[in-house]
Write a structure and sequence with these properties.
Low-confidence stretches: 289-293
InterPro entries: FAD/NAD-bd_sf, GDP_dissociation_inhibitor, RabGDI
GO molecular function, one term: Rab GDP-dissociation inhibitor activity
Helix content: 25-40%
Mean pLDDT: 91
Family: Belongs to the Rab GDI family.
Radius of gyration: 22 Å
Pfam family, one: GDI
Structural class: alpha/beta
Number of strands: 19
Number of helices: 12
CATH architecture of one domain: Orthogonal Bundle
Protein name: Rab GDP dissociation inhibitor
Distance between the termini: 48 Å
């Protein structure tokens, strides 16, 4: 292995695979390595055997769950927002030719002890139990205000300055009740907590517009999902990288990140051989131990995510027998600081056997009893056939990589969509190349 690469990428999580695909497409010579024998790293989709090996070593999966190959269970539950940035990257890179997408049937919110659908049409909005009649009128005015907003036309601003006025001010202007604010901020703008309320309204405006345009794109819900599980996403970007000359090595131990006397990256040692490169990109788990990693990553402030993968033999009650859905439990509804998310998919997405549904409940850990924190979500699922609980620290890099050519990505957070992953891709891309990532806009085909 005497040849030198432009970039070595460590870990085959979605963030790393997107970067390796984009860099290969740009003509960079990329070597991609992973210690696992499967793609996806933290964001992999596992078959039954792999799932049991990970959570219950030594235990065989029960035969009643069906065939191993019928399963692709996501470790990290996320849906793709139809008009979001990940969709743009998928289309821009043309990896859509390796993937098929299906709509998620519905988006729901938990409020006042019951599950209600987030309205996807004018008709549903009129019938929705989420608001009383007068509140519906106020909300309608609020949404019309957002839809009609034009930066260059002050007549559409109604005296509001999105860059200065807080979201709280905007809510109060339209007289929206706390429950409605909750629903808008958490089920539509998809904030994890209430910190956004005191910040300028621009970011929330952008998020709500993204949500409503995604909803309008395919109807039913703003989310789409790849057939055969999220693990298909990193694999598709790996194929893209390979087409442009990228080299992949799975099941390869990473024994040392080699640096020179100045601490600059030189290469990666695996067993007896060292591969050289100008830069390294990797997920935090490759930089979490050993002398060369000191001070390069830290756990974020609210530093852990608890996730429970639940095997169900029925759809989630009160979701209109949906074959797939997202349910958001806003933190105020259950006396927490952070929302609880439920993501459910089924055999129609080719991720489990017929008659089985896979629901994943997740949130940011706030106490020393993480499993109790997701109890409100587990309670909504009905009888749970089996569940696998994990608690994962959330890491973020402490260095930019400019000084040592070591570029570290962030761990996956508790959000139920990929927008934060794409922010990370754009951030690392800029640090590695010195330029902004520019994407071309096109349409994506989705199964209804």
């Amino acid at each position: 292995m005497d040849e030198e690469y432009d970039v070595i990428v460590l870990g085959t999580g979605l963030t790393e695979c997107i970067l390796s695909g984009l860099l290969s497409k740009e003509g960079k010579k990329v070597l991609h390595m992973d210690r696992n024998d499967y793609y996806g790293g933290e964001s992999a989709s596992l078959n039954l055997t792999q799932l049991y090996r990970q959570f219950r070593p030594g235990q065989e999966p029960p035969s009643e769950l069906g065939r191993d190959r019928d399963y692709a269970v996501d470790l990290v539950p996320k849906f793709i927002i139809a008009s979001g940035e990940l969709t743009q990257i998928l289309v821009h890179t043309d990896v859509t030719r390796y993937l098929e997408f299906k709509q998620i049937a519905g988006s729901f919110v938990y409020r006042d002890g019951r599950i209600s659908k987030v309205p996807s049409t004018e008709m549903e909005a009129v019938k929705s139990p989420l608001m009383g009649l007068f509140e519906k009128r106020r909300a309608k005015k609020f949404f019309e205000f957002l839809q009609n907003w034009k930066d260059e036309d002050p007549a559409t601003h109604q005296g509001v300055d999105l860059d200065k006025d807080s979201m709280k001010t905007v809510y109060e202007k339209f007289g929206l009740e706390p429950g409605t604010q909750d629903f808008i901020g958490h089920a539509m703008a998809l904030y994890l907590d209430d910190d956004y309320i005191t910040k300028p309204a621009r970011a929330t405006y952008t998020r709500i517009v993204l949500y409503t345009s995604s909803m309008a794109r395919y109807g039913k819900s703003p989310y789409i999902y790849p057939l055969y599980g999220l693990g298909e996403l990193p694999q598709s970007f790996a194929r893209l990288s390979a087409i442009y000359g990228g080299t992949y090595m799975l099941d390869k131990s990473i024994d040392e990140i080699v640096t020179d006397a100045q601490g600059k990256f030189v290469g990666v040692r695996s067993g007896g051989e060292t591969v050289k490169a100008k830069q390294v990109i990797g997920d935090p788990s490759y930089f979490g131990a050993g002398k060369q990693a000191e001070g390069k990553v830290r756990v974020v402030e609210e530093g852990k995510v608890v996730r429970a993968i639940c095997v169900l033999k029925h759809p989630i009650p009160e979701t209109d027998d949906s074959d797939s859905c997202q349910i958001i439990i806003p933190q105020n509804q259950v006396g927490r600081r952070n929302d609880i998310y439920i993501a459910m998919v089924s055999s129609t997405h080719n991720v489990c056997a017929k008659g089985i549904h896979i629901a994943i409940v997740s949130t940011i850990v706030e106490t020393d009893k993480p499993e109790l924190e997701i109890a409100p979500g587990l309670k909504l699922l009905g009888p749970i056939h089996d569940k696998f609980v994990s608690i994962s620290p959330v890491y973020t890099p402490t260095t930019t990589g400019q000084d040592d050519n070591v570029f570290i990505t962030r761990s996956y957070d508790a959000t139920s969509h990929f927008e934060t992953v794409v922010e990370d891709v754009q951030d690392v891309w800029k640090r590695v190349t010195g330029t902004d990532l520019v994407l071309k806009k096109q349409e994506l085909e989705v199964q209804q």
